Amino acid sequence: MLQVTNVSKTFNTPGGPVHALKDVSLTVNTGEFVSIIGKSGSGKSTLLSILGALDTPSDGTITVDETSIEKLSGHAQTKYRGSKIGFVFQQYNLIPNLTAIENVMLALEFGGYPASSRFDRAAKLLESVGLDTEEQKRRPSRLSGGQQQRVSIARALANDPAYILADEPTGNLDSATGKKVFDLLHDLSRNQNTTVIVVTHDLEIAGKTDRTFTLVDGKITTK
Amino acid sequence: MNVLTRGVKNALRSPLRSGAIVLMFAISIALILSMLVARSSVQAKINEVKATAGTNITIRPAGVMGGMGGGDPLTAAQLATIKSTANVASTTMTLTDQMGTTDTSLTPSLELGAFGKRQMRFESSGSSSGSTTTPSTTGSAESTETARPAPTPRTTVTGTTDVNSVTTNGGALNIISGTTIDANGNGSVALIGTTLATKNSLKVGDTFTAYGSTVTVSGIYKTDSVFQDSGIIMPLKTLQTLTSQTDVVNSVIAKVNSSDNVAAAVTSLKTSLGSAADITSEVENAQASVTSLESISSLALAGVIGAAIAGAAIVLLAMVMVVRERRREIGVMKAVGGTDGKVVGQFTIEGLTLTVIGTIIGIGLGVAVSGPMTTSLVSSQSTATSTASTTGTPTRGMGRAVPAWLTARVRPAEVLRTE
User: Fold this and answer.
1) H helices, E strands: number in chain A
2) N or C: which terminal CB in chain B sees fewer CB atoms within 10 Å?
């Protein structure tokens, strides 16, 4: 279970402090498929970053499976990300120098997966998201947006994370491809009991999730 | 794929970028190598000049050169001063005399020739050989020239504390028959030059007369010099006694403990002996050459330091730019579980890969450039390849690791949000 309690985040900017999150509290149960919606600048991505220990809150606590992640050291947070969290970004964020399969193998290496079985595991994951052997050998620049996002999902799944955090996963995709990616995430939640949290501004997608949190100016207004 | 293979592959995946960095490495290494080789060669040349000059200082009573000239002999106190001078490791003392036909039973083996006759044209007057000035037949001024008997050849006798000091090549005296003498003793023994021995049919164990005393032939020697082979070598004390010149020497060779200390020893001796002695050393002659070479050596050292600093700065800045360009990649690596150590490790391996390639090319360039550069400075050859590579490699490894380490400390959200 993931529990957010009174989390605030303030950015100090040259123009003065910006309160991205204000006293946010929410709970997500194991295996749930939830969405966080809101307008641009409402704090959605900031909240997702804090949930994934990519950033730290200014105030409040985030408890994941009885561990307060905001209190962890930088190294421990890295380990937490590698073992419990899988990220899917709107910009895919694949390593441009590595092929599709090498991108997935990188996550497996960081997760401590045995070197001897990384290739097979990565190939299997990519195959499961629809990339054939030839496509697996390509670098991101030679893959379509939809294919890159599939690689991103395969990489997120590499270490069997308990949580998938997806930031606008269909934002850069056409509607047909976006639907396929969404269905992929939905299947994960349904079939593998993986908790999926999707940040989106697409109300249609949000409507298909188990629950939706609405952020307005850094505050949760709807649960 | 592990961090090692990923690091190596990443280093080679961008030919233009990697090529530019490798070229910078190579030029930097080549410059350092060239400067090191040049400095090493100049240093070798300095040592060569110093070695050629040797460590000997020759001290003679002022105005004396061998058996010629005038002046007073060095006193026992002055000899003691020479021996106690700082850095003087040992001394060899020599007294040279010439025996006329009345001084020895030996027949000189050297013919006077035109040179000998000219040198001896004044010596008959007042000599102990008995010729005295005679009045001229006209009753006017006395004429010494016409009264002189014909000049006679002499036999050179050398008294020394080291028989090897008479050789012209600085090596050991070649004794072809018999045994050497105790040069520091006072026995009536002598070594005879092979030419003189042949002329007088002398063998080891034979005797001859010198200054009214009987001297035994201990050995017969041979050198590359006919002049030397026509002479006699005795213990210094023996010759001093036979010629009634107690404690008199006409040459002292002071051997200094190091070529670096010769100049200082010369200065010290000149101060202590003043105008009583003529002090000469080849090092003084070589000093001018050494000084100019040392200037080149200093310039080369400055070049090494300058090239190393400039190379390190260029490489560090290039690495900082490259690593900063890849901040997003670093952020992604950390987001998917990459630790700081893994990130730094990968970038360090990338840097080392480029370093190895750059070092190999740089050494090749350096070898190609340093030859002509060294030849233009000095003719001596030397190498400093290992020094250059060992100096360059850690610099470039650090150059890659430091910016990677600094960048790896960023929070992933910061990088992913802003870029």
Assistant:
1) 8, 10
2) C
User: Do B343 and B410 fall into the same domain?
Assistant: yes
Helix, coil or strand: residue A119: helix
Q: Do B250 and B106 fall into the same domain?
A: yes
Q: Who among B10, B338, B413 is closest to A110 (CB)?
A: B338
Total domains in chain B come to: 2
Residues of chain A whose beta carbon is less than 8 angstroms from a beta carbon of chain B are 45-46, 49, 52, 54-56, 74-75, 78-79, 81-83, 87, 89, 93-98, 102, 105-107, 109-111, 115, 118, 155, 158-159
The ipTM, to two decimals, is: 0.88
Inter-residue contact B392 to B307 (CB < 8 Å): no
Residues of B with CB below 8 A from A79's CB?
337, 339
List of E strands, chain A: 2-13, 16-28, 33-38, 59-64, 67-68, 85-88, 163-167, 195-200, 211-216, 219-222
pLDDT digits (tens, 9 = 90+) for B204-245: 999 999 999 999 999 999 998 888 899 999 999 999 999 998
Is there a single domain that holds both residue B31 and residue B84?
no
Look up residue B217 and give its two tokens.
């032939």
Q: Name which residue leads in pLDDT, B44 or B149.
A: B44
Q: Does B1 touch chain A (CB under 8 A)?
A: yes
- Of B211, B240, B257, the residue that ends a domain is B257
The chain B residue lying nearest A52, using CA atoms, is: B335
A157, A188 contact by CB (below 8 A)? yes
Joined tokens for residue A213: 């949190």
User: Does B233 lie in the same domain as B175?
Assistant: yes
